[in-house]
């Protein structure tokens, strides 16, 4: 692969920002892609969160001279090799809360119903899918959540014994919005992503992720992997935190693409997101797609469910929009479906956003998360950057 493989197809026109951890600085630099260089524009922030509060973040970036430059090729290489002693990419967000929407696509909604009914047992999933797939899927894919038609479908499904908490958030009036990861816990391009060692049924979730500021303004978008443990979530919805929030279970990147004349929210609405999982030992390959055009709730509506008079985010937030991808392809044995193995290489891509690449390990063995808000503030203060931006 060439370096361009990891960038948007029109990267020469894209306004891309990210974060590079520089061992020489002992902390992160906000970077702006300029040609084949990543310009350190931390002075424009000094956090990505603060930068997105500007009236015109792109103009502020353009007016900020580079404090230093990193060769894009070297940063990409170091990130893919896991070379933490060299400048490497981090998740492109920092102080923003990391939120996620679930059950925003009908096809994945059906899989969540199956998880619930299977009680985490992947061996029961095939039978349940056959029993309810036709009865549920064909009737609800075109329903607008919360509409009278959706409420009628709810009545029909309840009478047939198919009603589920996942259908409630899928076609009901209220969207599912949950906290995916703590602030600064998400990993970036090239990093390891974690699944619990005790999980035997899990999968990637390739998603578009919005960058939203404190005023609810959507400033741009990037790619994300909402790593999910299907067996644990299937046992009980109360285990959502255990299924979703583990060490290295949230991957975001490689860069946030800011909205401008060449990239708008309409482009996000039309995104085609691809997924490829390549097994390190068994040579297994899984390809999948997620088309944002099939989402049940508009991105603006989902942002409104997250922020408003009912909930504020003074540092903004990143919002995973959910996925259409539902992995039912068998990996090892008929009827067992897909699950990760350590060493899997996961690639999530979209022409307008680039390619996010990560490798699966057990969460217990992934690099421990030690660089939190306190460490960031101390580093920025040491560099004389606090109070600027």
User: Which overall shape is indicated by the principal axes computed on the Cα atoms?
Assistant: globular
Assembly type = single chain
What is the average of the pLDDT values?
91
Largest sheet: 11 strands, mixed
Please mark out the parts with pLDDT under 50 across 5 or more consecutive residues, or reply none.
none
Strand content: 25-35%
* DSSP summary, beta strand count: 18
Number of helices: 12
Computed over alpha carbons, the radius of gyration is: 21 Å
List the secondary-structure elements in sequence, H or E.
EEEHHEHEEHHHHEEEEEEHHEHEEHEEEH
Helix fraction, binned, reads 25-40%
Structural class: alpha+beta
Through-space gap between termini: 37 Å
What report would you give on this structure?
The chain has twelve helices and 18 strands. The chain is of the alpha+beta class. Strands 1, 2, 3, 4, 5, 6, 7, 10, 11, 13 and 16 form an eleven-stranded mixed beta sheet that branches. Strand 17 (345-350) and strand 18 form a beta hairpin. Helix 4 packs antiparallel against helix 5 (122-140). The longest helix is centred in the middle third of the chain and has 19 residues, at 122-140.
Give the gist of this structure.
The protein is an alpha+beta fold and 389 residues long. The protein has twelve helices and 18 strands. The strands form three sheets. Strands 1, 2, 3, 4, 5, 6, 7, 10, 11, 13 and 16 form an eleven-stranded mixed sheet that branches. Strands 8-18-17-14-15 form a five-stranded mixed sheet, with no helix packed on it. The chain has a two-stranded antiparallel ribbon with strand order 9-12.
